Amino acid sequence: MDLLGSILNSMDKPPSVNEEQKKLIKRQKEMAEKLKNKQKEELMRFRKYVEERIGRFAKDDRPHIEFQALDKVHRAVIHEVAEFGGFIAMSFGCEDVDRYSVVYKKENAPTEDEIAARRNHDGWNEEIAKEYAERRKQQRELEYEQKRLARSSAQNSNNTTSKQSNPAPITEAEIKPTFNYKDKYAHLIGQEAALEAARKTETNQSYGFVPSKNKKDVRSIEQTLADIQAKKRLKLQQQQQEQQQRQQEEEQQQNTQNPETQKADSAKNSSLASQPPTSSSTSSSTSY
């Protein structure tokens, strides 16, 4: 706590605000609040103006109405009021330059030509409508001509390919092979290659078709456990038989080695019996 107090005491105090500065800040807040309220009132008046104008537009025979170039906030009000009244609202032009909004009735929705003209900054009237209709007609004719030329070129190419693939028939007199191909490939197909060498193959009708009932284990639990125990007993018996066989083989190997060991032992015993007694044995016998 002492450390924190020392740090706070060493820091500079905030600058004091005098009465004039307080009054200035208060006036700035009041002006900002007035400006905000003024903007709200202006938007409310503009909204009423848009509602009245669209209301009159709904009762007359005009196909659309245009608004002057406005900013994004005012255009958003126009779109909101138009959509709420069941109309179509669209904006054209460059942002922050000359972007304006147009409201259409649903039964008089704008055509593609009108949308294209307004996006191109050409406006829209009867003369411009005729001009764009003529352009669209010329464009259709040009596309039709291009398609016709493409079809004709494709047909010509098909005809040339068909002529190349189907040349004039050749008579038998013109067919004169220079050599027999069998002689060339005799090392592969042999000298006799005909239908006799071919073998007719037949597919296995049952291949891949296994009944689902053959894939199911229809045994009961008791029978399954009994089969498992039987397999274990059989495996144990086989292991015991193998162990007995190994023991028998080991015994046979030992029996084959026993005669040799017996002969060696007998020879050793005979050599010990033939040796004379040592001096130690005689002295021990005389001492008694």
From TrEMBL:
Pfam families: R3H. The keyword Cytoplasm does not apply. Residues 44-107 form the R3H domain. Residues 18-45 form a coiled coil. One of its GO terms (molecular function) is nucleic acid binding. InterPro entries: R3H_dom, R3H_dom_sf, SPAG7. Residues 148-172, 202-221, 233-288 are annotated as: Disordered. SUPFAM superfamilies: R3H domain. Keywords: Coiled coil. Residues 152-166, 237-246, 270-288 have a biased composition (Low complexity). PANTHER family: SPERM ASSOCIATED ANTIGEN 7 (PTHR13498), SPERM-ASSOCIATED ANTIGEN 7 (PTHR13498:SF3). This is R3H domain-containing protein. It comes from Glossina austeni.
